[in-house]
Amino acid sequence: MNTIDLPMSLDELESYFKEGLGDSISDLRKEEIKKGLNNRPVKLIWFTVSRGSFRKSIELISDIQIPHLSVTSGSDLGDVVELIYHFAVNYGYPGDEVSVNIKVHLPKDDLTIPTITDLVPGAITTEREKQEFLGIKVENIPDSRRLWLDEGFPEDRYPWRWDETGMENMSRYVHDKEEAANPPTEDTPREGGGKDE
Amino acid sequence: MSYEDWMVRILFVLVLPFIGIFLGLLYKGFDRKITAMMQARIGPPIRQPFRDVKKLFMKENIVPDHAVPWIFNAAPFFALLAPLVALVYLPLGPFEPVMEGYGDLILLLYLLAIPAVAMAVGGLASGSPYATVGAQRELVLMMSYEFPLAIAAVTIAWKYESFSLATISSTPIWGQVGAMGAFGLFLIVIGLFAVLPGELSKVPFDQAEAETELGGGLFVEYSGRNLGVFYLSEAVKMVVVGTLLIALLFPHNLSQWYSFGGPEFAGYVVLNVVADVLFFLLKLLIIIFVGVSVVRVAVARFQIDKASYFYWVPMTLLGLLGTVLVVLEGAI
Amino acid sequence: MSDKDTTYQVPIGPIHPALKEPFMINFRLDGETIVDAEAHPGMNHRGIEFMGMHRNPLKVIPLSERICGICSIVHQHMFTTAVEHAAGIEPTNRARYIRTIMAELERIHSHVLWAGVAAHEIGFDTHLHFTWKVREKVMDLLEYIAGNRVNYSMWTIGGVRRDITEKMYPKVNETLDYYESLYKKLEEIFLGDPSIRLRTKDIGILTEEEALRLCGVGPTVRASGVKKDVRIDQPYAAYGDLDLDYVIPSRYGYENTGDVFSKTLVRLKELVQSIDLIRQCVDQMPEGDIDSEPKKAVLLNKLKKADGEGIGRIEAPRGEAFHYARLKEGQEELDCWKIRASTYNNLTTYAPMFMGEQIADIPIIAACIDPCIGCMDRAEIVEINSGERYSYTHEELHVLSVEKTKKILEGSL
Fold it and tell me: What is the domain count for chain A?
């Protein structure tokens, strides 16, 4: 491991990741937002990596400092599920912290991603959450049980997906499930009027 | 003993439990009110414990599936009966103990241990992990505070060469010792006051119940009538322990110093007795205030090992030092 | 020890006096010693993110506020920051300062509340009553500024909805003076009292290494000497203009032990820091508008046209919290919204803190990361003077609350 001078500037980080990841990095975007009267900048960096070199990018971050993973956010983009790992590097250096946001796209027919809990033990909560809410499979996760959702929640439904495995149909009829099972007829009309549909 | 004597005794034995329960609930009310005032709260009215008991007795009595029902149901009654029996052997203010004998003090110490054991047995029989932990803690705590208590009792009994409470309370012990002995007795008083919250399961020694840790501990599965009986047991125990402390160390009566009127005034005996009873109630209030209310406002709950250490090492050593001082003075 | 397994299981939660919210920790115990601890959250998952993804950003602000009763400022602050970032809207400078003042006031009330809960957990109810009594002062100030005790509804995208005018400064200063004079007493109680020291020293230790590895946040890890504080690392709102430093125990001559005592120390010192920060804000508050886009229809249109993603990262009283929001062109609803509260990251720090400790330490350790707790509110009032007792209905309480707020605003309370 080379010694890295901290804090790293945005340009240094850009060349560091480009060098380390080569071709598998794309859509790299740097942001500097000036805030307050003194115009102190907030620095961010966004980039997409291929699944193959995803672990390599986490290793690169681990080489800088013990990685601080804020959270993993994820969403359903149609054909792919996008995961964004929000890291913070340069913590402990006033005003120099950079948010590093690493995006990974997983095709819907193969929703697997390697675990990073060996590098970032604190990632276990968010990895388990992604398994439940997006239906992805984290490989070699030390603990794959459910964390947030109720035991009775169907195994093949994922709240953050917008396709047929999502919750759209579920949530609409959850409140009158009983009624859906026994729809009102002319002989047994709905009590108290009900909606005009 | 004459026939009338026996009748009076039986009457007293029948009446005393009600007096004990009434006083216990009353003092519980005082304790709660005073504590609330010290914590800058309004607090419940004095009669709140009576309402609590009334309500508990109205509620359903639930026996959990995992419990051993007969032990579970019997435990609260043993816990209540023991302090009620103890009351019979205690001098209440100007009145002599209803029953007396040669080993009163030893009997009392055993009677005082029964509620704790009954609570632990009931807790273990309820089949809840919280209650099991609570029962373990109660037993550990009991083994810890019994030692300083026994030392104090033995020292005082040694001075009188009698285990009879009637003898001990007839003459205050402070008049029988010199300066060194008084200092030794003072150390024993400290030890006894330290035992008080442990004996009554109050902060900092309420580990067996520990609301925030075990959610009620021993009593977690108890409800309705059974919990109400435990509540009464706790209240009576407070009176018994307080009275024991008074009998051992402060058996003074007001009439020793001041008499209302003289033999020429017909009702003076009654008046003096009433004054003595009031004085006794005041002493009890002070003891409960100092030993329970103030302590529970001023400290946090100890961990069980630290509580045990507190009784086994500093308090035991303090008690032993007191004993040595009292005995040495007698030898000189 | 024999080979026989002498351990047994004790579940703490979902409903337990040690926890102020539905949450469960499963403990494996050997006698009184903890050998394993496992947290089971999700007892109260309400699907707020899902709900948010079906609403437009302006409607999500009140929703985000109701994620938590204590950190109601935190979530609206993060959410608006994230959306502003995504849509490229800049809040005005005055709004930044007002946001900072509100956030610091909330930190004061949250830390004082925590101190009370911590005292209660170790069986010291006297301090629970004391701290919650003194907390009312800052709650009143918040009500004076925002019109509400909790759920202040101050934030909007591009600024804030209520101004802190010069007329309000005396009241703000008075409250700050009150807490400054009070601090000495709080320090005496929580750092000096022998029975509290007995219960907090060397209990629930989190080493610096573990704190970093487990991505812990906030006072929980600062007590271990970790320098992580979003206010300093990546200044948001007006923190870039203010003078502040990491609150870690070694700055005050204590060791960075990471036990409950250090966590208490860090929270108390942050109280002082917050008072100082509010004073700085009041001194250098810039003139100007409080909202960069007062016309909400125009704003909504702008948000509908916006296309981008943004993050909102702030230092909540409990540590770093995070929101991610994405807007899609032509779509009124949020495209993606991810909420991460501080307790989420601190959950993993429970395991090393509990290991080898006693049952008696469970409540205080569970409380020491300050898990997000529900809020206190008015429910019943007992009229002692007349001896009568009322139970107020919802409407009556509402009327009373409005009256009290008016009184505070008039300065008669």
Answer: 1
Contacts of A102 in chain C (CB under 8 A): none
What does the pLDDT average to over A166-190? 56
pTM: 0.82
For chain C positions 89-128, those within 8 Å of chain B (CB to CB) are 119-126
Of C299, C358, C330, C277, which Cα lies nearest the Cα of C32? Answer: C358
Note the pLDDT tens digit of each residue in B309-318.
Answer: 988 899 899 9
* Residue range(s) defining the domain that contains residue A102: 10-181
Q: pLDDT digits over C183-194, tens only? A: 888 888 888 888
- Between CA A160 and CA A163 the distance in angstroms is 9
Return phi, psi of residue C159, to 5°.
Answer: 165, -150
pLDDT at C328 over 80: yes
Mutate to test the interface with A, among C83, C94, C338, C348 (most CBs of A within 10 A): C338
Q: What is the ipTM of this complex?
A: 0.82
In a mutagenesis test of the B interface, which of C19, C126, C384 is the best target, namely the one with the most B β-carbons within 10 Å? C126
At C69-79, the pLDDT tens digits run 777 788 888 88
Q: Answer whether residue A155 is part of any domain.
A: yes
Distances (CA, A) of C208 to A3, A97, C205, C229: 21, 19, 10, 15
Q: The tokens of B233 are what? A: 């047991």
Neighbours of chain C (3+ CB pairs under 8 A): A, B
Q: Compute the nearest-CA separation of A40 from chain C (Å).
A: 6
Cα B307 to chain centroid distance, Å, stands at 19
Classify domain C48-367 by CATH number.
Answer: 1.10.645.10
| pLDDT tops 70 at residue B171 | yes
Backbone angles phi, psi at A68, to 5 degrees: -110, 110
